[in-house]
Amino acid sequence: MLFTYTNFLMVAEWFLLVFVLILYFYSQNKLRKIKSEDKKIKINIEKAKLQDEAMLSSIGDGVVATDKDGAIIFINQAAKEMISWDDSMLGKNLAEISLLADETGKHVTVEKHPLRQALIKRKKIVSSNYHFVRKDKLDLAVYISAMPIILNNEVLGAIEVFRDITKEKEIDRIKSEFVFLASHQLRTPLSTINWYVEMLMSGDAGPINDDQKKYLKEVYEGNQRMVEMVNDLLNVSRLDLGTLMVQLVPVDIKNVVEEVVKENQVGIDDKKMRVNIECDEKLKGVESDIKMLKMLLQNLVTNAIKYTPENGQIDIMIEPSGKKDFILTVADSGYGIPDSAKEKIFTKLYRAENVMAKEITGTGLGLYMVKSIVEKLQGKIWFESEVNKGTKFFVSFPLKPILKKKTIAI
Amino acid sequence: MKTAKKILVIENEKATRKILVDKLQRENFSVVEAGSGQQGLELALKEHPDLILLDVFMPNMNGLELINKLHQDDWGKQAPIIILSNISEDTQLMSEIKHQNYDYLMKTNHNLSSVVEKIKAKLEV
């Protein structure tokens, strides 16, 4: 029995030993596996990292990233080439290498640098008004967008992407130059023609008969239409190109309306029309761009005169709407806009058939301009019209428009 | 009889200059004309006219450059000028000109008789 027991113990010991050994080898094996997997993961992470870096580096636009203090931690290949930087810039603070200048050539302070602004304001900053001043002194106009890098609500740094817009800037410049030249070169002969015809009609160069006078009047009026057309086209291209900058100033809106009506007094008197101007006294604190507002009113008022028969009436009302807006209404008792034309009247060069049939001249640019001004000043425009009863144009503007600038927060 | 007021017309466009000269002579002004900014500057300093009608957009020396040159002269600083132009008011050149506080007329917005009226008002004749 004793033997059996001892024997049993030995066998058990053996089993235990074998078991421990198996366990040992198993765990060793496991450990090795884990180690090798760990290595694999490490390799994979390394690979992914390299891949990410390669991707960032290969982006065609310039990419620069900083840590939360503004020290540069990454520059991609495109950025290095575009602003002739190298890796020696890594770790340096933007403060040390302020290479950005604004449109006037003034260096942009570190605080105003889009990257810095993105860090401070914790939002996207976009600008197309800056250029990099490179080592070789060649300027590079850029479109910059800077974003804070946020992880778990903590700002880790900021990343900036920039694109070379030298070509776009150049095209803009050429377009503006063309508009400028066209404005001068087209108007000069037109004003000269006007003056010579005027001189002939006045009899300064000798007497003229009634027929001659009638024909000269046609020449004069035709030329005058050309002047209007040139002015309209230039204003439209300026609006389209954005060379007409919005400048907000406090505006006495009633005064502006009265001025525009006064400028059209001849046309109003010719057609024996009545004009009422009503301005709500409660309306105060209007801010707008005087030039654009005048251009808008000029178009609405001349349309009202043009498209209303003799002895008609024009009512212009200005009143507050809610606490933040005001509404300008120009109503006439004229020919009206037919239903078929209602959708198209703001389209460039479009003219309604009922007024074309009446041979009323126009460029088809007026309401397009009006619409474009309304958009620039953050307003809305709509109308009510009935054929042969009249048309009412409503324009609503914020008392203080908040403009979408090319540059945000800078 | 009062002596006729002397007006200097500086305008590079011949047709425009000729009609201004013609009209002003009919209105009994004594008129001197210049077809370029440089010539206009010389004549202004030599003749000291009662009024200068000045075009803005001229090759070589434009209206603004001429005004700046005139300002270096004691008489020129106070020279009465009416600017006649066709350049839109929102251009760089015009905004600089407007800073100078001179009377400004847009040619296409004024007929000849209203230009003459403005001149007479300025000269108080």
Structure described in brief:
The complex is a heterodimer of chains A (about 400) and B (about 120). By secondary structure, chain A is α+β, with helices and mostly antiparallel strands. Chain A has helices at about 1-60, 75-80, 115-120, 165-200, 210-240, 255-265, 265-270, 290-305, 355, 365-375, and strands spanning about 60-65, 70-75, 100, 125-135, 140-150, 155-165, 250, 275-280, 285-290, 315-320, 325-330, 380-385, 390-400.
Question: SSE order of chain A in H/E notation?
Answer: HEEHEHEEEHHEHHEEHEEHHEE
Structural class of chain B: alpha/beta
**Mean pLDDT across every amino acid position of chain A:** 87
Give the CA-CA distance, first to last residue of chain B: 13 Å
State the low-pLDDT regions of chain A, or none. Answer: 406-410
What Rg of chain A, in angstroms, do the CA atoms define?
A: 37 Å
Task: Using the alpha-carbon principal axes, give the shape of chain A.
Answer: elongated
Q: Mean pLDDT of chain B, nearest integer?
A: 89
- The proportion of strand residues of chain A reads 15-25%
Our estimate of the beta-strand percent of chain B is 15-25%
Structural class of chain A: alpha+beta
Low-pLDDT ranges of chain B? none
Count of runs of 4 or more consecutive helical residues of chain B? 6
Tally of DSSP β-strands of chain B? 5
Helix content of chain B: 40-55%
Instruction: Work out the helicity level of chain A.
Output: 40-55%
